[in-house]
Structure formats: structure tokens, C-alpha cells
Design goal:
- Helix content is about 30%, strand content about 20%.
- It is of the alpha/beta class.
- The strands form 4 sheets. Strands 1-2-3-4-5-6 form a 6-stranded mixed beta sheet, with helices on one face. The protein has a 6-stranded mixed beta sheet with strand order 7-8-9-10-11-12. A 5-stranded parallel beta sheet has the order 13-17-16-14-15.
- Strand 1 and strand 2 form a beta hairpin.
- Helix 3 packs across helix 5, helix 9 packs across helix 10 and helix 12 crosses helix 16.
- It starts with a strand and ends in a 24-residue tail after the last helix.
Length: about 475
């Protein structure tokens, strides 16, 4: 039995190849299927099974593309009522892949239709050797049940039983292969370690050590991190079957005057993916800025409606092409073109530009002492609570879409985050809503602390976790 993990850093997604001598299954595939095809070819394996633990909420899955490319059958939860051709699975079902026996446990809680694949390597023994548990059990955490707010308490109760009455009944030596690692918003406090065992999680997973069911439910239905907007729509896309990537139009280069004309079309939106300092120097008025070096896919899925036609401003054609891959991972399938020649080409065409002044740590500190402008801290509430500048107002970046009304558009506004990336995004959101005196704190709280004006924020400086400071995703 061969198990190979594939980890997609920007969305902290883990998928797997489960292989035998000549055949293999892909578990919870990403939409970019080339990595599975290459791995299978390298091991001289034929992909015969596609296993979905649940209808993923945080990304668009690759089951349709993979099935079309390989002819493999899709195996998915029966209770998911999937609209595509598949083998529906329920508690007690099983199937074999060569010497491996795959048994099904229904494990609702994170989502209503969740299942786990329990694998026995019968060439060595009948005991369960591995469990692909999707988003039910993570390393150091468990799946969040609040993605369906109306039934959050009900799902939390089901999650308790899925864990304690099913998964934790597996042998302590059974290996745990979850669908996410540290950095996802499908949980609250995942470990940086990407695999584990049932026995280790029993002993050290904080969520599993809450034995009282009511306390467990309370812990998972209060003070959870906010769920991005695309979490509410990806499950349904995955249930229906996502559009195949081959059916989507490729992104094209568009020269500046044609680009400017295209921006007047229905559903057209400008998405600037350059670094925040480049965006601050020059950008197209009305552009949304999401730094490609940060948590790009999550914030795009959070802030952009799926019907939007995205016109990209990038540093290079290669960067634009890479961005399209990430946009499609969160269901943003319409990217007609990118600006040929970038902002230099735009400027040479005599077209209008806007700017966001970048302020260094010393300038930020001086402004804080003088009280000369409003400070808006766009980090998550946990980061803000750990450390912030006195008199700053905490409005997490995505909430600026509506909470901008709490600010006076006539006053200068300094936007700050952990590094300068989310604050630049927040600045672009404010400028879209009529704010003209907007400044960005370059380096954010990290730079502010490094200059000696504040102790380090323990949340911002943590190397892993579901916080949303930038991590380069190439």
C-alpha cells in the first residue's frame, strides 16, 4: 500500500494517492489534476477510483476533471445527493482496490453528508491501517460545524458522535490522513503536522479531550473564525459537478485602451494582484487589490462574487496565469484578460491612475502620537486582541465592505494589518467606497514592532495557524 500526500499551501488542502501494485485512488482531489496524473505515471499506476469524503466548502474539487481524464469512477457520500455520475456510499459499504479493503464510516458534523474511508492493507493484516477522514478529524483539531449556521448545534452534536463513537474506536496505530493542515479556516487551531495517528490524537488533541458533549458543542459554536463568502457556495458547486477546466476560456493579454473599454462591461471588475507597494504607487481607479504574495485564493473567494469577470493587473503574464489557477480553486472561473504591459503600459496610454501613500513605522508612530488620523486595524479579532495600536478601531478587512459606514470619509484613514498586505486590500475597499485620504501602513504591525514601537504580536508572529497574514503561494 502506497500513500502519497499532496499539499496545496495557499488553501492548506491535503489530498492523497492511495496506490497498490497497478491501480490507485485519488482522495479529495484538487481542481488542478496534473499533479495526480504525473504522480501516477511516475509510479506506473492507473487511476481507477476518485474518493470524495464530503462536499468541500472551501475549494472547488477536481473530481469531474479527473474522471473525464482517466475514466475513473467517483465515490461520494450517498447523503450528498450528487448530481453527477458516481457510486453513492453509506455506512457499512466497502470496496476493494487490489489487496486494499476500503470501508465506509458516515461521519457527519463538519458537513451533513460527510464520510470517512477506512483502509485495511489485507496483504499485511485485516486491521485498519489508515483513515482518510476529510474534515472530521484534523491533526490537533476537529472540523468546524458552523458553516451551516441554522444547524450548527445539531452538526456539532453529530460531530461529537462521529469522533467518539466511530473514528476514535479505530486502533491507536491507525494513521490519520485529514483533508487540511494548518492555515485552513475549516478548523480553528490545526497543528502544522500534516498526518497523525488515532492514538496520538486521543492523547494530545485538545478538542478530543473535551469529554462532555455540551461543552464540546459550546466550544465549536462560539468564537469561531469568520467563514469566507465562498464557503457558502462551493459545496453546492461540488455537488452539481464543477465545470471542467477545459471548457473555460483561457486568459488573454489585452492592450491598455481595449482593457479600459472592457472594464465598462457587465460584471467587469479590476483585480490588481501586484505587491502592495506597487499597488500603492500606481493603480487603476476602482481596482480591488489582493496581493498575490498573501492569502490570495481565500481573500478572492471571500470578496469577489462568482459571476464577476476579472480583469487582472499583474507583474507579468506568468503571474496572471498562476493567479487564474488559484482563482478557479475558489470558483472564480471568469478571467477574460490581463493588462498588457502592466501599469507602465497603462500610464503610457495616458489613462487615469490612483495612489495609496505608504507610511513607514516611524510615520505610523508619529501619527498615532498626534492623533492626526483614524487608525483602522483590519486583522482578525484574535490578532487585534493580542496586540494593537492604542485608539485603533478593529474592522477585519472583509467587513469593510459594509462597516465602512462606521468611518468618516472626510477624515484621513490609516489602514494597518500584520504585514501591509491585508491593509492594502482594505485600503482598496475603502477607496471603492469613496474614501480619498487613505494611507497604508507598510510592514504593518510586524514593522511597527521591529522598529521598537511595540512588542511583537504573538499571533501575528506565529509561523502557522488559520490567521490570514501573507504567505507566498507559488
Amino acid at each position: 500500500m502506497i500513500i502519497q500526500q499532496f499539499f496545496v499551501k495557499g488553501i492548506a488542502h491535503s489530498s492523497y494517492l492511495l496506490g497498490g501494485d497497478s491501480a490507485c485512488a485519488i482522495v479529495d482531489p484538487d481542481r488542478n489534476i496534473e499533479m495526480y496524473l504525473e504522480a501516477a505515471r511516475a509510479m506506473d499506476l492507473k487511476i481507477t477510483h476518485i474518493l470524495e469524503t464530503h462536499l468541500h466548502a472551501d475549494f472547488i474539487a477536481g473530481h469531474m476533471d479527473l474522471a473525464a481524464k482517466t475514466g475513473a469512477k467517483i465515490y461520494a457520500p450517498k447523503s450528498g445527493n450528487c448530481a453527477f455520475d458516481h457510486v453513492p456510499l453509506a455506512e457499512g459499504d466497502s470496496f476493494e482496490i487490489e489487496d486494499m479493503r476500503v470501508s465506509i464510516l458516515e461521519t457527519p458534523g463538519h458537513t451533513p453528508e460527510h464520510i470517512a474511508f477506512v483502509v485495511s492493507d489485507q496483504a499485511r493484516g485485516k486491521d485498519p491501517a489508515a483513515v482518510f477522514c476529510g474534515d472530521t478529524l484534523f491533526v490537533g483539531d476537529v472540523g468546524r460545524p458552523d458553516l451551516f449556521p441554522d444547524i450548527a448545534r445539531e452538526l456539532a452534536g453529530k460531530l461529537y458522535h462521529s469522533l467518539h463513537d466511530k473514528l476514535l474506536k479505530l486502533p491507536d496505530f491507525c494513521e490519520v490522513y485529514p483533508a487540511h493542515g494548518a492555515g485552513t479556516l475549516c478548523g480553528r487551531a490545526l497543528s502544522a503536522k500534516r498526518t497523525s495517528t488515532i492514538g496520538y490524537e486521543k492523547k494530545f488533541n485538545p478538542a478530543l479531550r473535551i469529554r462532555d458533549k455540551e461543552e464540546f458543542i459550546r466550544s465549536l459554536t462560539t468564537d469561531m473564525p469568520p467563514a469566507p463568502d465562498h464557503f457558502s457556495r462551493c459545496s453546492e458547486v461540488n455537488r452539481k459537478g464543477p465545470a471542467r477546466l477545459a471548457s473555460l476560456a483561457p486568459i488573454k493579454s489585452i492592450e491598455p485602451l481595449a482593457f479600459e473599454k472592457a472594464l465598462r462591461g457587465a460584471n467587469a471588475k479590476i483585480l490588481d494582484i501586484r505587491s502592495y507597494d506597487a499597488f500603492g504607487g500606481n493603480h487603476i481607479p476602482g481596482a480591488l487589490h489582493v496581493d498575490f504574495g498573501g492569502n490570495f485564493a481565500t481573500f478572492c473567494g471571500w470578496l469577489i462574487e462568482p459571476e464577476a469577470h476579472l480583469y487582472l493587473v499583474s507583474d507579468s503574464p506568468t503571474q496572471a496565469q498562476k493567479a487564474v489557477v488559484w482563482l478557479r480553486r475558489v470558483g472564480l472561473d471568469h478571467s477574460p484578460g490581463y493588462l498588457e504591459g502592466g501599469m507602465l503600459g497603462w500610464a503610457k496610454s495616458g489613462l487615469p491612475m490612483a495612489h495609496v501613500r505608504q507610511m513607514g513605522a516611524d510615520e505610523v508612530n508619529a501619527a498615532a502620537r498626534e492623533g492626526s488620523m483614524a487608525f483602522v486595524d483590519v486583522r482578525a479579532s484574535s490578532e487585534f486582541a493580542a496586540r494593537h495600536i492604542q485608539n485603533a478601531v478593529n474592522i477585519p478587512a472583509p467587513e469593510l465592505r459594509t462597516r465602512y459606514r462606521e468611518l468618516d470619509p472626510e477624515l484621513p484613514v490609516l489602514v494597518i494589518c500584520g504585514t501591509g498586505q491585508r491593509s492594502s486590500m482594505g485600503a482598496s475597499l475603502l477607496m471603492q467606497r469613496g474614501f480619498r485620504k487613505v494611507f497604508n501602513a507598510a510592514g504593518g504591525m510586524a514593522g511597527y514592532a521591529a522598529a521598537g514601537f511595540s512588542p511583537e504580536c504573538p499571533v501575528c508572529m506565529a509561523p502557522h495557524g488559520p490567521r490570514l497574514i501573507g504567505t507566498h503561494i507559488e
